Please model this.
Amino acid sequence: MKNIVLIGMPGAGKSTVGVLLAKSLKRPFLDTDLLIQTATDRYLQEIIDSDGMEAFLDLEAHVIGALQVEGTVIATGGSVVYRETAMRHLASSGTLIYLAASCATIEQRLNDIATRGIARQPGQDICSLYAERHPLYRRYATFTISTDAFAIEEVVTHLSAHFRK
Model:
């Protein structure tokens, strides 16, 4: 059974949708940000602040590259698309779903940008980060679903119906 891999910006709903989708489909759930925190015993923001963004992205790719799961719903960190090796690994064992949300929605949902562990250049705002990442999400996604246009429950219902086929 293939994995279901959720990609998208921080605040798009990957973790929330992921947990509910896993419950709906009776599948395991895995959050790669939590895997990184557990593996390092550090918060994501700590890693980015002390080691730098490139080191964090390399660590993220390494952790994802070591994943050997099947039939799992996986919520990825928003920065996963910066490392092609990580994306190839995820795509080799799963369907990649881009949970798309507008920049305005992301800004509204994120109130802890300084401490959330978002891989971005110093001083980079959410909209410029969105503009940078959006084409990458679209490139790697098998399909896209908007979390602007639908409530979380509707997104989960739609995805559940698709993956029960």
Observations:
- The mean pLDDT is 92.
- The chain has eight helices and five strands.
